[in-house]
From TrEMBL:
This is Carotenoid cleavage dioxygenase 4. The keyword Iron applies. GO terms for biological process: carotene catabolic process. GO terms for cellular component: chloroplast stroma. Binds 1 Fe(2+) ion per subunit. The lineage of its organism: Eukaryota, Viridiplantae, Streptophyta, Embryophyta, Tracheophyta. Residues 46-62 have a biased composition (Polar residues). Residues 22-31 have a biased composition (Pro residues). One of its GO terms (molecular function) is metal ion binding. Belongs to the carotenoid oxygenase family. Residues 1-21 have a biased composition (Low complexity). Its cofactor is Fe(2+). It holds the Pfam family RPE65.
Amino acid sequence: MDSLSSSFLPTFSPPNSTASHPSPPPPPPRPSTFRVFSVRIEEKPQTVTTRSTTKRSNNQERPTPPSVNIEKKPVADQSLPATIFNAFDDIINKFIDPPSRVSVDPRHVLSDNFSPVDELPPTDCEVIQGTLPSCLDGAYFRNGPNPQYLPRGPYHLFDGDGMLHAIRISKGKATLCSRFVKTYKYNIEKDAGFPIIPNVFSGFNGIAASAARMAVTAGRFFAGQFDPTKGIGSANTSLAFFGNKLYALGESDLPYALKLAPNGDIITLGRHDFDGKLFMSMTAHPKVDPVTKEAFAFRYGPMPPFLTFFRFNENGEKQADVPIFSMTNPSFLHDFALTKNYAIFPEIQIGMSPMEMIGGGSPVSTDPGKVPRLGVIPRYAKDESEMKWFEVLGFNIIHAINAWEEDDGDTVVMVAPNILSVEHTLERMDLIHASVEKVRINLKTGMVSRHPLSTRNLDFGVINPGFVGLKNRYVYCGVGDPMPKISGVVKLDVSLAEVDRRECIVGSRMFGPGCYGGEPFFVAREPDNPNADEDDGYIISYVHDENTGESRFLAMDAKTPTLEIVATVKLPRRVPYGFHGLFVRESDINRM
C-alpha cells in the first residue's frame, strides 16, 4: 500500500531555474531482539554485510540473531543545500518527531523478513518437490515496500520503495528476479545518495513535525532537488495487466509501465499517463472484466471531488472521468468491487483529515461516529446522477473480493473482509480481526443484509480471475496469525452459508511453525476452457521460513481439501513479506 495521495504535498509551480534529474499494517508487538539482513543505512556509500542464519534442529534453541557490520566508506560529495537540508532532517527525526511509536519505529517495522533486500538479477531456482504445471508457464510478480535506504526517522510499513519479485516459469524450470520499480522518487534518491521525498504515513504526525518536514520539502524543491509534478509515489502496492501492458501500482501516483525481458529481468519503462488523460493518481486495485477486457479504476484524495471513477477500454485507452461529489468527506478508499453492470465503492470510518495533524495526530485517522456506506453506480455512467448510497453499520473494508448481481439485476451481492477493529488498522494491525462477509443490497427497496462466511481472521482474498464481476463459488484467503503475517491459505465455498449460515471453509493449507506467506493467487489450469470447473487450478504464493531464513515458491492444487502442494521451488535468496501479486501468462508476456 502506497502513501495515500499526492495532494498531501503542496503543488509547487516549477521554479525558473531547472532542477536536476504504483486486497492488507505494522507487524506484531516489538520483540526484545530483531534481525536485519541486508540494507543500506542513511548514505548510499555505506554497505551492510550480515552473517547467514543457520538451520536448527527441533531440539536446538533459536540461533542468535545475526549482527550487522557496517563498513564505513567515504561519503559522496554533497552540495551545500543538500547538506543543510539533511541536517534539518536529522534534527526533525531526533528531536521534533523521533520514531517513538512501535508502528513507525524502523527497528521494529523492518525486523526479520520485513527487512529490505538488494536487487537480484535473474537467477536459476531449484525445483525441490514435484513438477511445475504447464499452466504456470509465465511469470508471477509480487509487489511490496522495500526502502532503498534504512530510514533515519519514523517509518511505516506502508511506506518504502516498491520492489517486484518475479519468478519466471518455463517448461518446468524457474528463475527469480528482484528489481526496484524505477520510479521518479527512487531514481532521484538513488542519484542523490539519500532520501528526499517524505513519507506520508510516517512523516506527518502533529503540527510541529508536519510544518518542519513541509518546510524542508519546500526548500528541497526550490533548490532543484526534486520536481513533484514528475511523481512522488513508490509504486509499492500491486500490479495490473490490461491493454496488453503490465503496470506497477501505488495509489499516490500514476502507474509505472513494466516489461519482462526474455531472460526474466524486470524493466521499468516509465511513469504512464495514458496520453495525458490520467493525472495525479490511480487506485492500486483496478478491476479487469474477463469478458470485455476493460479495466475499471478510480482515484481519491483529500480535496473535492473526493472520489473520481473512470475506465479504460480493451485497448488500454482511458475514458472520461466521472467525479463523485456525493462522497462528502475524504475517505480512505483502497479498493472497490465490480459487477456486470455496476461499480461498488465503500466509504469507511478511516478518513483523511489533514487538520488532525494540528492536534498531534496523523493525516489518516478513524472516525468512530461515522456510519459506513456502500455506493453503487452504473459502471458506464456519464455522471453521478444514478449513484445510490446505502448505510451499512460497522462495515469497514480495506479489500473487496468480488461482487455480482442476482434477481435479474435488482440485487447486488458483494463478498469482502470486514475489519472488526478498524481503529487498529494503521497502528496495531496485529490486533485487528478481518471477518469475510457476504452483503446483499436490494437496489429497489434499499434493504441491506449481511452475514459472515467464516470465524477465522482472513484477508487478501482472491478468486479465479475469470469470475471477476460474475457469481462465483470459491474464495481463497490468507490466514492472519496475526496480520500482516499469513500463516496459511484457506478455501471458502461461499454458497454454503446461503441457507444455514455455517462455516464456509472447505480447504486449508497451513505453512507450519515459523513459516509465513502472503496473498495467494489463483491460476486456472485451463483458462480458455469455458466448461472448466471454477476451482480447477492452482494456488501460488511465496512462503518464508523464519527458522532457516529460506524462502520458497509453492504451487498448491486448489481442488483438494488439503490444498495439496504439487510443486516447491527453493528460491536463491529470501523474499521479504509484501502486499499484492499477479500471475501473467506466457501468451500475455509475448504481447507486452
